[in-house]
Design a protein that fits this description.
By secondary structure, this protein is an all-alpha fold. It has three domains: 3-181, no CATH class; 186-275 and 311-424, no CATH class; 565-641. The protein is built from 27 helices and no strands. It has helices at 9-35, 41-66, 75-105, 112-133, 135-150, 165-172, 183-204, 207-218, 226-241, 244-262, 266-279, 288-298, 302-330, 346-367, 372-387, 391-395, 398-431, 433-445, 449-464, 469-485, 491-504, 513-522, 526-536, 539-549, 561-583, 592-604, 610-640. The protein is globular and about 85 Å long.
């Protein structure tokens, strides 16, 4: 069923215009607040949520029609429910603005009558969260509200002193430090929003397609060919979009068929695209919304965050390159000529400037000491100025306009998700549950940092399953962050640790959303694709432990050049041994004993004790030399035959 099936064309156009106007308002607010002037905080947050409410209701409506999921309710009743949600939501937002105004003018306590619009607002935004983001994020927010209301009757450490409805409203709705309108909402509106618009504008002006072409040309002489190109393109494309699923759709529709054509299995093609796409969010310089939020929450600054993320991201993509190389050797796939035009045209060079110019603007602005939001603003200005040199944009200027509105629409739906996260923040902060869980983890770990990180990893993967990266990261850091920092790990390292597992959760079966997005494109079994992506992305589960024990890899903390170079060499060798052991293949097929030895040696290379990692280095070299000699002997015998 399409929207026009039960609504007149005029009605549909009116809704489209309403959504466009709301998106335009959000976009203009993002541009103004990031680069021109400051808005009154309460007006900024109330206005942002009011516009996001309109966009969210219309986006959920479109999603319902597109999926042909109207349930058993008649269309008119759906319309009535949507209008009721809009009215209730606007009422609750106005109540927030009104109460905040009275608090600024005089001493004012939240009253019982203020609790009802707050409760209506919580219900409206949780329902929108369910429609747009699914049951996972809805459940997080709903359970947080229920816990505040009824948690006093729960057993053990879960019990709290109890909260009346008025106190729940004050904690979750009328608070500008926590709750729906809290500090995380402020970060998203002030900083993240402009970068979401920037990413969609980059794609809309033609930079994405050109990046893909450059990736194919750079990797044309490798065995993996399109598989290696997918890795390279996804690392660059993902840093623009900040969304794993958007990355898969943007690059996978082109790369996956070519990977299959090269000779790789459909499962492998879908798995490598899912794994590469999920890594785009850990690749500087943009890294999506989560890195921007991390910079504010840690106080480390955005420039420090992207510097810290550089080498862990390079290790991750090196592991994917290694996995593809080993797999192509195992399947006997050789270098083949490109099946696309490998000439760099004038339009390609122009489109490359569209990508390089704004990215350099971001980096230059940060180096000059400008704020992160100002860097995003100037990047958008530079991109818009450069876009007119692209002949495709000159032929169809509306593509820039549509990209701008699409970016605002993405930001609006993200803001709906942030409402649920804000509810969780308010609940954890009000009840102290986060600190209680930290104490439990501390009692479980004993004196072992490694065992504590294992517990945190498991919890992070469970909490992050089925969620987009930013909500997953925020939930994980709220619950697990205090426990990790209590071990003596720095705040930035703790945030980077859980951020990686927030990204990795998109590859973790059974709720591997990245693999499930790639599987239909590859025409592969979703569960088998999930298992393949989990295997290929295994390095992502190891790298956080490396920088937790060796923070020098993050560069901005405890940096020592000798220690840094030594752990880089060991990590690269570890990744190669690990990747070849997972495939049971290097230059030739590995025996079971060799596979076990490579696994053990790979982990031993990361040991803190020099005696252990030096011994492992020698064993690893011996294993590689043995495999090389065997391969040469096999070639010699083949030549004699």
């Amino acid at each position: 069923m399409s929207e026009t099936d039960d609504a007149s064309p005029a009605h549909s156009r009116a809704l489209m215009w309403l959504s466009g106007i709301a998106c335009l308002g959000l976009g203009l607010i993002a541009l103004y607040s990031s680069g021109i002037g400051l808005l009154d905080p309460k007006l900024h947050r109330a206005g942002g949520f009011a516009l996001a409410l309109v966009v969210g209701i219309l986006a959920a409506r479109r999603k319902r029609y597109d999926s042909n999921d109207s349930g058993t309710l008649p269309a008119r009743l759906h319309d009535v429910i949507d209008i009721a949600l809009l009215i209730a939501g606007l009422w609750s937002i106005w109540s927030f603005f009104n109460v905040q105004t009275q608090m600024e003018e005089a001493l004012y306590d939240v009253s019982n009558s203020d609790a009802w619009p707050a409760l209506a607002g919580l219900i409206v935004f949780l329902e929108l969260c369910r429609r747009l983001w699914g049951w996972g994020l809805f459940s997080v927010g709903a359970l947080a509200v229920i816990y505040l209301l009824f948690g006093k009757d729960m057993p053990g450490i879960l019990a709290h002193t109890g909260f009346a409805l008025k106190e729940v409203a004050e904690a979750l709705w009328y608070n500008t430090n926590k709750g729906v309108f809290g500090s995380i909402t402020n970060i998203v509106l002030s900083t993240v929003f402009i970068f979401i618009i920037f990413g969609t504008l980059l794609e809309g002006t033609g930079a994405g397609a050109t990046l893909l072409k450059f990736a194919f040309i750079v990797t044309r002489r490798t065995r993996g060919g399109p598989a290696h190109a997918a890795i390279l393109a996804s690392s660059m494309f993902g840093t623009m979009s900040g969304s794993t699923v958007a990355n898969i759709v943007g690059t996978g529709t082109f790369t996956i068929p070519m990977i299959k054509k090269r000779g790789f299995s459909p499962t492998f093609a879908g798995g490598i695209e899912a794994t590469a796409s999920s890594g785009g969010q850990i690749m500087p310089p943009i890294m999506g919304a989560a890195a921007l939020v991390m910079a504010d929450l840690t106080g480390a600054g955005y420039l420090n965050v992207i510097v810290a993320a550089l080498f862990p991201a390079l290790f991750y993509y090196f592991s994917l390159f290694a996995a593809v190389t080993v797999e192509s050797r195992r399947q006997g796939i050789e270098v083949q000529p490109l099946t696309i035009d490998d000439r760099i045209t004038r339009v390609d060079m122009i489109n490359a400037v569209l990508f390089v110019g704004p990215i350099l603007t971001v980096i230059g602005s940060l180096l000059m000491g400008l704020s992160t939001s100002a860097a995003g603003f100037y990047a958008v200005v530079v991109l818009l100025a450069l876009s007119v040199v692209n002949p495709d944009v000159r032929k169809d200027p509306l593509r820039v306009w549509n990209s701008f509105l699409a970016g605002a629409r993405s930001g609006a739906t993200l803001l709906i998700a942030i409402a649920a996260i804000g509810i969780l923040v308010g609940s954890l902060d009000s009840t102290g549950l986060g600190l209680k869980l930290a104490n439990v983890i501390s009692s479980i770990r004993g004196e072992s940092l490694f065992s504590a990180l294992l517990v945190a990893m498991a919890g992070a993967l469970i909490l992050g399953m089925g969620m987009p990266t930013l909500p997953a990261y925020l939930i994980i850091i709220l619950v697990m962050g205090p426990a990790i920092q209590a071990l003596g790990v720095s705040m930035l390292t703790a945030h980077m640790f859980v951020f990686y597992y927030g990204v990795a959760s998109s590859l973790t079966p059974p709720v591997a959303i990245a693999a499930y997005a790639a599987a239909p494109i590859a025409k592969a079994n979703p569960l088998m694709t999930a298992l393949m992506s989990f295997r290929l992305g295994m390095a992502k589960f190891i790298i956080p432990f490396i920088f937790a024990f060796y923070p020098t890899i993050l560069i901005v903390e405890e940096f020592d050049i000798v220690t840094f170079l030594w752990i880089v060499v060991r990590t690269c060798f570890c990744i190669w041994l690990f990747s070849s052991a997972l495939s049971a293949f290097d230059r030739g097929r590995l025996t079971f004993v060799e596979v076990v030895l490579r696994f053990v040696t790979a982990f031993a290379l990361l040991a803190l004790d020099p005696m252990i990692h030096l011994s492992a280095l020698l064993v690893g070299i011996a294993l590689i030399m043995f495999d090389l000699r065997r391969a040469k002997a096999g070639l010699a015998m083949g030549g004699q035959a």
